[in-house]
Amino acid sequence: MKKIVIITPVPEVIKVLIENSIIRKSIDNHVASIEVINLRDFGIGNYKQIDDSPYGGGSGMVMMAEPLIGATEKALDFVGRSSDVEIIYPSPHGKLWNQDLAKKFSQTEKMIFICGHYKGIDQRVIDKYVTNQFSVGDYVLTNGELPSMMMLDSALRLVPGVLNNIESALSDTFSLGLLDYPHYTQPRIIDDKEVPEVLVSGHHEKIESWRQSHRESRTRDKRPDLWKKYKKIRKSE
Description:
CATH superfamily of the largest domain: SPOUT methyltransferase, trefoil knot domain
Mean pLDDT: 93
Strand content: 15-25%
Number of helices: 9
Low-confidence stretches: none
Order of helices and strands: EHHEEEHEHEHEHHEEHH
CATH class of the largest domain: Alpha Beta
Shape: elongated
């Protein structure tokens, strides 16, 4: 069973996201054990302070080292101290998260996520503990809870035993290096728009050919960066 810890000053946010995502299924199906650590339990003084102004001046606040060290040490006790623990800090300094990384971390057994706030966290915590920094895009979010849960969701859904049908996850957008094809369900006709005839033909080879054609055309038209990468891979095979 995977052991995962999320360190956050707002545990209620994490709990809501867990309860309403595929992550809950990973817990119910005994694929993962997830601990949420409230950073404020390690805060300083009567007011449980977790942030302070930065040395050198400047605007904004920085999350303090002491609370984060205490929380991270507790997290290490939970997952088990070993060389294979991955401690992840969402940050614009990190590599852009993608499907390949989701596949890689779906095989990781011990993960700790540190959710940053304000201007970030004390660099000494990063230097001491963090094994990976990842970004979810070139834009600013108000907290690290959202990117942490995005990364965790994308990884856990690829673990056998989480989804009812793992083949569904393996054929999703990006899993094949392409965008997904269009999907249709009941009714067959709505507002004079009909489901493509090939999808109700029962001819599996034609259906797969139609789907692949739309995967490629969608990727070529909407994500030329992915299309270029896909063509390069296909050419080298």
